[in-house]
Design brief:
Number of helices: 9
CATH superfamily of the largest domain: HAD superfamily/HAD-like
CATH topology of the largest domain: Rossmann fold
Largest sheet: 6 strands, parallel
Shape: globular
Distance between the termini: 6 Å
Order of helices and strands: EEHHHEHEHEHEHEHEH
Number of domains: 2
Structural class: alpha/beta
Strand order of the largest sheet: 5-4-1-6-7-8
Helix content: 40-55%
Strand content: 15-25%
Length: 222
């Protein structure tokens, strides 16, 4: 049914909760903020960081941008390496490549960090394209700026020269993946082994919901 599969990274391919939450905790510490527990910071996994600092801690945009810089002070040294590949993911990716599918990473994580994670986790060989967010707004004026999931998906579609979007499936663990897919006219599947919930996916309008990586294979291969 699908020739091309887009995968989110955090919460879909890897459990990145340790690296992300510890780095958010580090950034908040710069403002004297001490979260009750690191678990409450898992809401930062998936959405763009600037949006999360504004939404969950009431930062205005300049302060949220500054908080992202603090976050990356720790993340680029330690957090980017604090990941675990979910059980069954390598087998899923290998199967899709064996069946001739085009496999793409579409993440709102900055592309430079996404590449490091793929290399460190031994996942690089499965991907035909890595599409991530820009690290900052340096390209904003040039019209190439990517930050939200819909921007990343659109970039990947254009980069691959995809004419029929009905042959593309987006796989992710948060509503942003589902919404980003819908805005680009492609189908989506929400995975329950990440950080999203069935209710979140149903509300966002996911075409499918998968409990395991094996379920994703069934959806893609029909």
């Amino acid at each position: 049914m699908y020739d091309t599969v887009f995968f989110d990274l955090d919460g879909t391919l890897v459990d990145s909760s340790e690296g992300i939450t510890k780095s958010v905790e580090y950034a908040l510490g710069k403002y004297g903020i001490r979260p009750v527990s690191r678990d409450e910071l898992k809401v930062f996994i998936g959405p763009p960081l600037v949006d999360s600092f504004m939404r969950f801690y009431g930062f205005d945009e300049p302060k949220a941008v500054e908080a992202c810089r603090f976050y990356r002070e720790r993340y680029k040294v330690k957090g980017v390496y604090e990941n675990r590949v979910y059980d069954g993911i390598k087998e899923l990716l290998a199967l899709l490549k064996e069946r001739g599918k085009t496999v793409v990473l579409a993440t709102s994580k900055p592309e430079i960090f996404a590449n490091i994670v793929l290399d460190d986790m031994g996942l690089r060989r499965y991907f035909d394209l890595v599409a991530g967010a820009d690290l900052d707004d340096a390209d904003k004026e040039g019209g190439n700026y990517r930050s939200k999931k819909e921007d990343v998906i659109a970039y990947a579609v254009v980069s691959l020269g995809i004419a029929d979007k009905k042959t593309v499936l987006m796989v992710g663990d948060r509503k942003h993946d589902i919404i980003g897919a819908k805005l680009n006219g492609i189908d989506s599947v929400g995975v329950l082994f990440g950080f999203g919930s069935r209710e979140e996916f149903e509300e966002a309008g996911a075409d499918y919901i998968a409990e395991t990586p094996a379920d994703i294979a069934e959806i893609v291969l029909g």
